[in-house]
C-alpha cells in the first residue's frame, strides 16, 4: 500500500534539518519530502532581485509537480506554515498543520515588525559570534540562551544540532528580503481542506495573543490548538508533541 505524501516546510533562516528528530517516526506512516527553501543554507540559490514569499510558494508547488503529487498533507513552521496555507488555497493540500505560521500580520506595523526585528537582530549577532559558536554551544546554558528567541529548551539539543541552527541562520541569503516582505496571508473561508493552526504558547516571534488572534480571524474555519510549553520552533522543545499534532491532522479524511 502506498504511503500518503507528506511535505514538511521549515521556517525562515532554517533548513530541512529542522525536522531531523521527527523524520524517522513520520516516515513510518508517510512518504516524506522535506526540502530546503530557495536562498536557505543547502537549498537552491536565491534568484535575482528580492526574494518574495509568493515565489517560494511557486517553487514548492513545482516540487509537488515533480514528485507527481497532485495533493499532499502539508506541515510547515513559521514561513513554512505560510507557504502551506497558500498551497492549500491553490488546491494542493489534503490537510494542513501550520505551526505558528508567519504572514498573519498587518505589514509594516508592530504585528510584523516585533518578530522580524528579533530575528534580524539574532541574524546579525550570529554572524559576529559564529567563529566561537562551536565552543560556546558546548555549554547547555549557552545553548539555552542562544536559542531563547525561538525555543524554551534549547539546551536539550546537542552542540552539533545547535551549531547547525546557527550556521543555517548565518547562511541564509534571503533573510532580509523575507523579513521586510509587504506580503501577508489573506482571509481564507471556507477551508479548502482540513486545517489546524497550532500556535506555540511561548512564541516570542509571533505571539499567540497577537498573531495567533489575527490567524483565528482570517481563517475562522481552521481548528486552533495551543502547543503548551514550547517556543516559536516547537520541534526544538518537544518533537513528540509536534509529531502528535501532525498525526492528528493527517489522520483526518483528505
From TrEMBL:
> Which keywords has UniProt assigned to this entry?
Hydrolase
Write one Gene Ontology MF term: hydrolase activity
Q: Supply the name of the protein.
A: Alpha/beta fold hydrolase
Q: Which domain of life is it from?
A: Bacteria
Listed Gene3D superfamilies: alpha/beta hydrolase (3.40.50.1820)
Q: Show the Pfam families listed in the entry.
A: Abhydrolase_6 (PF12697)
Q: What sequence ranges are listed for the domain AB hydrolase-1?
A: 6-244
